[in-house]
Queue: 4 jobs
Job 1
Amino acid sequence: MGILKNRYIALYVENEVGVLAKVSGLFSAKSYNLQSLTVGRTEHEDISRMTISVSADDVTFEQIKKQLNRMVEVIKVVDLTEIPTHMKELLFAKIKRIDESQKEEAFRIAETFSTSSPHAVQVIDIGTDSVMLQSTLTERRNDDLVRLLRETYKHIDVVRGGSVAMEGISTSCR
């Protein structure tokens, strides 16, 4: 087995009932490790685009792409791994059972993580003893954010939506 790396695929598929089950079934049947999968309609109502993150070696990744290309419902497979891509992941983090100084620290963390991408991390809800953050950073930066929150606070809940990605226009993205 080769070196496992995170890889990204965009699939254009028919927007029909059961297509998601067939695609995810392919991954489970072959014991491929899905990191994330997001799905949404495109500008055409009858076509959806899936963004899939998978941890695989070179040989396995080539097998995945070939098997996806064989599926009748798959219109197009795009390997996003090595091309300039704009990629973001939606993340919500609820920080619970905190005092005022810890709330202020949550605001500082949000501000710090937004220095390179304005408003990427925002406080979107606040209660008497809790704060909720929303982040639209990359998967790696969201990993960093979650790591810091776990080190700083005792009680957090995190929900991640998986990455969405689109091929870039210029070579200066990702």
Job 2
Amino acid sequence: MKSWLLCLTAGALALGQVFGQTGANAATTPHDRLGEAWWKARLEQKEAQARTQHDTVFIGDSITHNWDNVAPDLQKQYFGDVLNLGFSGDKTQEVLWRIARIDWKTVAPKRIMLMIGTNNSGHGAGERPENTFEGIKAIIRALRAACPDATITLLKIFPRGADDQDPRRRLNDAINARLPELADGTHVRLRDVSPFYLLPDGKTLNKALLPDLLHPNKEGHRIWAAVIAPEFMDRLGK
């Protein structure tokens, strides 16, 4: 009986591993949050804005969303007119659902800045890094197909937690380690702002810039813009 139970348990574990590596990956399965009133309202607002052309598009979660709330003046100063498709709390699966609804021929962006994945690692989601990576890969694939003339700047996920021992930071670091696989240097460029948010030891988060250990404050946004904007805007043409 005991050996039979051991075999059954081993078989279930093996099945779970196989299942987790195939269609069960939530990070690659488009998902909406229409049941949340604020999310639905922002979706309607942003989809209305997407009915006109925008050279510059941001895509992401609350860290990107906060350009609209924390630093709208800096967003305009450094990036001009932006269609900001950042939604607080979104994971890769919500981004996949949202971008499938956009008429990208109308938006016709020249440049897209993408950062996503920290919510797959946090908020109890605890996605395996390889699952989140596949979600980001699916987003890149969808954007390349929809916007072949746009250059995508893929940002490494910003550091979170007090230091490099934070379990969510470590999950994000594992995702970031694989992101170079998605960059070709021409159509998709990988960039990293993270070092600017750390103290000189390269491990401890600078709370003067990310006071809640996750979201940049206004000065954190200014640093982000100063690091990214010169190449993001000038090399691709204003």
Job 3
Amino acid sequence: MKRKLFIVGTFIALIALIGVFYQQGRTPDQQSKPGAASIVMKSSPFAEAKAFPPGVPVLMYHSIGEEPNNDAVISKERFVEQMKYLHESGYHPVSLDDLHDYLALKKELPLKPVVITFDDGYRDTYEIAMPVLKQYGFRSVLFFPVGKDGGRLSWAELREMKASGMEIASHSYNHRSMDGLSRAEQAQEIQNSKKTLDQNLNQNTRWFCYPNGRYGPETLELLKANGFTVAVTTEPGWVKPGDHPLTLRRIWMGNSVDLKHFEERLTREKYSIL
């Protein structure tokens, strides 16, 4: 009888012990291994820390190539170096929609946010920039004037770029300075550009870049009336809380921006103007 009671008691104790382990979310094997609890409680590797930054640098690239005396161009070597720096330093390229929500809705962004933009749609944006950006999984933006430069890139290439993580945004239709046009001409530039991009890329285009950085009060009214939520200028500086989402600053990137000055542009709002 004593032996039976001992067996029953041992069985009950074992059941109770197993219940404790399951209540803590661990098996007996995990309980016995050093560090097992930290493995179970560890957050998902896909979880991304966020914060509300005091400002966001928006980088403005044009062409990538070998024209050392043209500061609208940056060498391939320097561009690759800069993207590698962003990756190794923990920067997180975000979309223009993310930037809009940061400004308008005060939403947090990933730590060390940055926006990477390209103007005009040069062949090298497709041939050089896109493969490098894909290598790091970086988001980016191409501002494309579909009427003026439609022959530079095909719609198939633009769709490939979009699929790789590059937003294809409006740079007007014919790349004409908006402040030199009538209200009707500005409306035509904006509407034709949006319609063409929407139809060919199956999207709702709501991002704009002013050709030559030029615009007026009517331009802002027309963009808003046509559903645009973000527009960028060529004015230097960071994007900061309180900025108008249709007049956002950007940071010029060209041959003169070596790695030292690149780092400065990412870490100092009042960076050196070269």
Job 4
Amino acid sequence: MAKREIEEINAGSMADIAFLLLIFFLVTTTMDKDQAYIRNIPKKVEVSKPVDVEKRNILAIKANNQNQLMVRDMIFEDPNKISDFVLEFYKTNEKKNDPTNNFPMYSRISMSAIDQNIAAIEAEIEQMEEAGMKADIVNFKYNQLDEWEKKKRALKLYGDNELPEIHVQANIRIEVQQATAYSIFAKMQSEIEEAIFELRNGECERLFGMPYSVLKRRFDQDKKAEDQAMMDLLEILYPARIIEVTPKK
């Protein structure tokens, strides 16, 4: 009986098929992205005596090594409520100061007071330059002058007799432990960002008739002076003062 020949399998296209499958899995597979937050970290300032901060000016948000959350020593379960605490922190005394509550007080400054401060700082700068004082001291005064001029532009845009400002010491303090899950830390950050965005967005729509996201995107693209003035006003009204405490064990 004649030996039967085994037909060869054509494997010429196997490499192409494998390549197509690889492309398919690369396109359809989703990968988790690390979350990160970019902030401008202030320079270290040496002070002879720590400044006392009133408790009403601190919104302390904490997470322990069991990922339990606490705001102002009150334990709560739902991390989605963090933004509600931030909104309450900013808005409680915004319209009218009430010294009986435990939230930051607001100050209100008029155009005449702003002009007085600008004139006083300009006089100080002139005296310092004539006396030949150190450049860093003079530059500090110039920075103060820039801040007051920014407030002057902001008040003109605000369209009122006075510009409201939350207390200069008001801050949000984040404190986690080394064993705290990064997802919890990221959630704390995102909730704070969400609340501040909501505050600025509401005021941006009221004052300028546009969402804050539109203004920010337009400013990032064109860097126009008028958009800068609008952004400055919203940041004065709702500053993002966030302090991250070094994680504890």
